[in-house]
Amino acid sequence: MLSIQKAEGVPMRINSLFRFSFYRRIQISFLCFILLPTVVASFLNYSITHNNVKEKIFLSNQTVLTVIAKDISKTIDDMTYASNFFVQDENVKKQLRNFMAMKRIESFHDFETYLQIKDFFSLVDVKTMNPDILMYVSNQAGFIVQSSEIQGADPEMTRQQYEIVKSRVDQSKPNILQWLGTVPTQGTNALSNKAYLLARVIKSPSDTQQLGTLFISIPERYFMKAFTQLNTSKLALFDAEGKLIAGDPIVSYGMDATAKNSIRNESLIQYSGWKLISETPDAQVTGQITKTFFITLLLIIPFFLIFFVVSMYVAKRLHRPIRQLQAGVKQFGNGNRRIRFEQDGKDEISDLGRTLNIMLEQINQLIVENEQEQEQKRELELQALYSQIRPHFLMNTLNSIKCNLALDNEMVHSQKINSLMSLLRAYMKFNEPSSLGNECKLLFHYVDIMQMRSDLVVQLDIELPPLLANLGFPKLLLQPIVENAFVHGFKKAVDQPRIVIRAKQNDHRVEISISDNGLGVSAEKIDLLNAELQSSQDTEAWQTDKRVGLWNVFQRLKMTYGSASTMICSQSELGGLTVTLGFKEKLPTGGSKC
């Protein structure tokens, strides 16, 4: 038995549990959901069958599509052969020279030329062996000689096609096959709604005179006959620019929402850049499989609901002791630190109760220790507050001296004490946040003190964009660099000593440069100094070096803005040394002047 003791020590009994282990009861609850794995297995079986059927249909369609593409490629190859025959055969060129000026058949010689060209078409027809394809040649006068009077291709239809596409022919590109696109077929005997046309300009190689233009018309019915090999899918043929040549206009050239719900196959046509695409709707392929699956699922749902109700009842019985454990833990969290769990059983919940008792003892011990630490911390804070009386005493004394000097009209010394007080306040509040603008103001006070100590008149110029004035910046970070300028740069007499501080922003990167016109440093020493700053030299080695100030500045910069921060030394354009600090920081939208 498991019980919870109240604050007064009275046990709070939990309902009796089953005599067998909690782990066994969980196994029984899982057995109630034996139907769930069945449903999951059905889903997996359906998914696998669905994908396998789609894959087989895809491979089958791709095979047929490849055959159709090869047939169309062979037809295009035959058209290329026919055009080459008219371009390369000397007898053809001879007759075309006689034909190029004909406007109509006006003599027996013209009639012989007309028949000879028709004979040439007959030779080409033997090669192509395709009765649906129409070829005709025209001259500059618009006179046309047609290959044959194929079904549905009367001279009037041929004339209409010629008038539509003659402007599409590029006469400056002879001896290459040009793709002219589709044109509507409006003849009285036309069996197709449109045709796709190709053209080849024929010119004399000797004098580049245009002999004529060969046109090849492929009617839509030719493609539709080829598409009957795959009548279970929607097929469409597109040219290289994605325009429909023949087929179902529902099929899209690119992938869209309709194509995603279909089995899509594509095949390229050689020599032309055309693309043959087929789409088979998923419902047409897997509709019966999906229907059978959902009928089975509807039969399983009632049994699933029954098992679900039973499992809810069992789970409630199993979860009751766990809820009681949760209630005891909440009481402990609300301040009842004497609550404990009584362990009577040998199952997993009893083991959990023993573990919780140990944890509660440890928590009580931690609470006691924490209360002791808080008491010690309050005592230390009182001591720290007492220790601050002396710095405040010093500041108040300096302020009194400053006021007395001002009353005696000693404004120079009064200003020096004011600068000193500003520095002392910064040192006393070193860890408090500051801004770049306040740091610049503090530098003016520091330079004022250093001028008095070194008996130098140093000009301090600060160029700070308003946007950067409110930038969060570590206090006294720039002071060691300015101090180096006084100690090292101006240790010998310098004409009009000057220190220039510039800050600029490039995207989210800020760069601050401190330059002086002091004695400067040689290029070799600058390279050595930059190398040491970028190396992994430890702090103790820098403590023995005179450049420990730069090292400390660099370390504070990286701790504040990250390891990507940089410090680079270079020769100043003023004649001395320039130290450039770079770091990344998100800047505010506004600022104030320094």
UniProtKB/TrEMBL annotation:
It comes from the Bacteria. This is HAMP domain-containing protein. The chain crosses the membrane at residues 293-315. Residues 316-368 form the HAMP domain. PANTHER family: SENSOR HISTIDINE KINASE YPDA (PTHR34220), SENSOR PROTEIN KINASE HPTS (PTHR34220:SF11). Residues 356-383 form a coiled coil. SUPFAM superfamilies: ATPase domain of HSP90 chaperone/DNA topoisomerase II/histidine kinase, HAMP domain-like. It comes from Paenibacillus anseongense. Keywords: ATP-binding, Cell membrane, Coiled coil, Kinase, Membrane, Nucleotide-binding, Phosphoprotein, Transferase, Transmembrane, Transmembrane helix, Two-component regulatory system. The keyword Cell membrane applies. The keyword 4Fe-4S does not apply. Pfam families: HAMP, HATPase_c, His_kinase. It is found in: Cell membrane. It is a multi-pass membrane protein.
